[in-house]
Write a structure and sequence with these properties.
Blueprint (H helix, E strand, L loop, with lengths): L11 H19 L20 H13 L25 H13 L5
């Protein structure tokens, strides 16, 4: 299936934003005065700007399985607080529609 393929090219500015995000999370977790007794985590999925890949990634995250399964959760309970949307409107809109069905913010 096409949605599991790697992105064709990595753009340096997007990669830089990814690294900055990761470093920000690590800095927040290192400082106990910012969020006492809370550790932030993250999973990063790249939609490559494709709405179908974004939708499949969200369903995969929510179901906790390798293959996305709507309305199904497998494995241990995860504390998902929210999702950070894509850079494009097309992928962000489809993501928001799916996430709203499950009561998640974006």
């Amino acid at each position: 299936m096409c949605f599991v393929c790697m992105c064709v090219c990595v753009q340096p500015r997007y990669y830089r934003q990814l690294v900055e995000f990761r470093l920000a999370i690590e800095e927040i977790n290192k400082n106990p005065s910012l969020l006492p007794n809370v550790t932030l985590g993250y999973h990063i999925y790249d939609s490559c700007g494709h709405a179908l890949k974004a939708a499949m990634s969200i369903l995969q995250i929510l179901s906790g399985t390798k293959e996305p399964v709507p309305n199904y959760s497998c494995g241990r309970k995860r504390n998902i607080a929210g999702f950070i949307g894509d850079l494009t409107s097309e992928t962000t809109m489809i993501s928001a529609q799916i996430l709203s069905l499950f009561g998640f913010s974006q």
